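User: My collaborator and I are trying to settle a disagreement about how two of our proteins should look. Neither of us wants to argue from intuition anymore, so we agreed to look at predicted structures for both before our next call. Could you fold the first one, then the second, and keep them clearly separated?

Assistant: That sounds like a sensible way to settle it. I'll keep them separate. The first protein:
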Amino acid sequence: MPPKYGAIYPQEWDTAADAPAGYVTMWSEFFGVCNLRLPLTVFVAKVLEWYKLHISQLSPFGMIRVRNFECTFRALGIEPTVGDFRRFYQLSVSMGFYSFRQRDDTPKLMLPPKGMTNWKTKFFYIKAAAITAKLQFRNVADSIITENISVPRADTVHWFPNLRIIEWFKLDNTQLRVLRMMLGRMSRKAWPVVREKSGGKCPFSLCGFLLPCFCH
């Protein structure tokens, strides 16, 4: 974690609610299984803002679906949008934490995540300024509107014929730097484009046939 983010470990008896003034709580699994990195991508920031969620209110089970959706769509050459995300997922809440469940009659983009046990005990704090999104705490007592946007089908979205599952796996830091889908709001000069392999060398590939290329 770069020093500018001011990451600090909690004290022995601290809880996730004990972030110091000017800091926010981050779940460690965000940066493990979920493949999240800072700065946040524009898409992740827009998801948090649309649902009026503070990042600490979103469980890793919710974050992994956000990140999987973004990476899958980018790998398929489709621009990810909150509107299309809503076609697949419904916001849900349990035990005070938010996640996203698969909507009925929608194609599955990923298998249910495993291995994220005891995630509530694994957290740290970073400076709030590191989160480039307009965060607000959602009241768990507020009702959640049931999504009524049409589910993805060939007659509702033009990209449906190209949709396919891309296996999700944890990337190491080198792969994440190469893949670098971090479309941070602090800099929009580099926009990732996914192109089909044409024989050239590339240090990392998705599904063996899709390669990330970053254009300025």
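The second protein, kept apart from the first:
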Amino acid sequence: MGTGLVGRVGYDRMGFSGSVLRFGMHGSPWCDGSGTASTRDARTMLGVGNIARMLLPAVCTVMLSMGIGCARDSGATAGRYPFFRWVGEQGLRPGQFQKPRSVAGDGGGGFYVVDMTGRVQHLSLDGRWLGQWQMPEIELGKPKGLALGEGGGVWVGEPHYSRMNLFAPDGVLEKQWGQFGLADVDLTFPRDVVWDGGGHLFLVEYGHFHRVRRFTVEGELLQQWGSYGEEPGAFKRPEGLAWSAGRLYVADACNHRVQVFDGDGRLLQVIGEAGNGPGQMRFPYDVAVDTTGRLYVCEYGNSRISVFDSEGRWLGMFGLNADPALDLLNPWSIDLVEPEDALIVADSNHHRILVAETEGLLAYWEDRN
């Protein structure tokens, strides 16, 4: 299989007549009227299902020692559907993940992943492990938010430290700024970051403030907008960002929508509403935009990816309850890898990364529907 551990991997596919066992409940953020928010995910929710999910790895180990099937499908799925593959599995070794939280393309046909261990790993699209580094501190909380910066640098956010870090591609820390506070020079739980290609960074924050902020790469505040609320232009836990063709796309998680702004903060478009039907969303955690202007929305709550055209019209979806072949469980992050326009998704509660060709995904959806 190789160091990259390519293929569908997991303990939910058992060797009994090809059946798939599912346990546990989907997590969902808490979004209350006070403007505070916290996350309740599948690892912290109680119930028999979640206990079973936690026990499955040990059960599989025992079954294998007894000669009873507990097979891992390490290539059959990708073989049937050549436009996508799975990269990684749960673990702590190179090429393995522990609940990946953010992904970002590296600008040269590969991508970065940060997970709950505080590791930033660098991989190729075919799953080859290229390197890694460890965040300097994780005691207060785990990193979230990845973005490619100028010269191939990698921006990594630390919500619980309220700061931003710029690393060289080899993992050397080059810049670090931000501290918790309520003044304009401070940060409060930054959730995602994106570089505009012109020397500026956009951040989203939640907690005390629910807003978008624009900084220089040195940490000088240039602009900010947004407040807690449901009206257009307001936010309830903004989680993810994408920048494309002069537009900023914001995953407004607890309002179950995506809001689109120009670079000066003027609202251009609102896409989506709460629900699980076509064109609806539940807790969108991240967004990505391809070279044709199509929008990909990573829905944590619906465990799927929804696709919209440049005008906001719904095109299709894939993931849990949309397509069992592309099974996702509470995905956290999404990005596109240039120049291939390959889609990468942090399939967080499966501890792996989906790598897919965008045109193949849409053609597959059209064929099925």
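Some points you might bring to the call about the second protein. The radius of gyration is 20 Å. The longest strand covers residues 238-244.
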